[in-house]
Amino acid sequence: MRNSTNTFLDQISICPYTVNMNKMKSLRVIFCFIVGVCFMGICSCESSKTTLTYIGHASVKIVAKDGSVLYIDPNYSDGDYSMPADYIIVTHQHEDHKPCRKVKLKDDGQQFDNRDFLHDGIYETMNLGPFTVEAVPAGNKNHDIRYCVGYIVTVDGVKIYHAGDTSMIDQMADLKPRKLDYAMYPIDGMYNMDAVEATKVAEVVGARFSIPIHENDQGNSKKSDNFTPNGRLILEYGQTITVSPR
Predict the structure, then answer these.
(1) What's the chain look like in SS3?
(2) Burial annotation 115-142 (CB, 10 A radius, 16+ → b, else e)
(3) Strands 51-56 and 59-63
(4) Would you say residue 35 has pLDDT above 50?
(5) Most CB within 10 Å of its CB: which of 28, 97, 200, 217?
(6) What is the pLDDT of residue 37?
(7) Sheet order of strands, 149-155 included
(8) Which of 119, 118, 99 is closest to 109 using CA atoms?
(9) pLDDT one-digit tens code per residue, 157-197
(10) CA-to-CA distance for 159 and 183, rounded, in angstroms?
């Protein structure tokens, strides 16, 4: 009887403790689940960024938040093209702007050039996955404005202007009301405008950030020293930045 009584009393005294322990275990599971969900959300936000990479020369890579990859004029042969392209767009038919052999399209990837975007003076706009690509005028004595284009790429709310090969043209004044976030201008001064003229163009266009490109293929030119607009942003070859809307 003593053993039975002790066992019963022991059970009475232990049960509240057991119940409390079970509650604590349940609370721990719930807490770990909440922390895990929050951590996954934070990681997802950190990895879901819109990025712009200046590969070199006139070559640019834009990656959307969903991971889609768009290349503009991917010809710089020393650049990193390890990410296969969903889309490739080309501003004109000069050899230093056509895709080099290192660039690979995904199985369902698509490639377009100026001839797809400009017909009889009409500039086209295409919706390519998360990217809206709008062709705009570009040209000079070395690049016939009837056939060459620049692009405004809108992705994740960010407006990015790649001027193509060009000098200052009257149509650039039409871009100021667009409130562009990032703009890239050639500054070589041989086939296109120089850095001083590009500065004037940047002030006319009024993008939040203005980036000089198309200096030379070595990436060590000092021409950008003369590119001095408000919002001047210098990118090294291969440099990637996270971009955001105004």
Answers:
(1) CHHHHHHHHHHHHHHHHHHHHHHHHHHHHHHHHHHHHHHHHHHHHHHCCCEEEEEECCEEEEECCCCCEEEECCCCCCCCCCCCEEEEECCCCCCCCCCCCCCCEEEEEEEECHHHHEECCEECEEEECCEEEEEEECCECCECCCCCEEEEEEECCEEEEECCCCCCCHHHHHHHHHCCCEEEEECECCCCCEHHHHHHHHHHHCCCEEEEECCCCCCCCCHHHHCCCCCECCCCCCEEEECCCC
(2) ebbbeeeebeebebebbebbbbbbbbee
(3) antiparallel
(4) no
(5) 97
(6) 42
(7) 125-128, 131-137, 149-155, 158-162, 182-186, 209-213
(8) 99
(9) 999 999 999 999 999 999 999 999 999 999 999 999 999 99
(10) 9
Q: Alpha carbon 160 to chain centroid distance? A: 8
List the structure tokens of 35.
């922390």
Structure tokens at 163: 């001027």
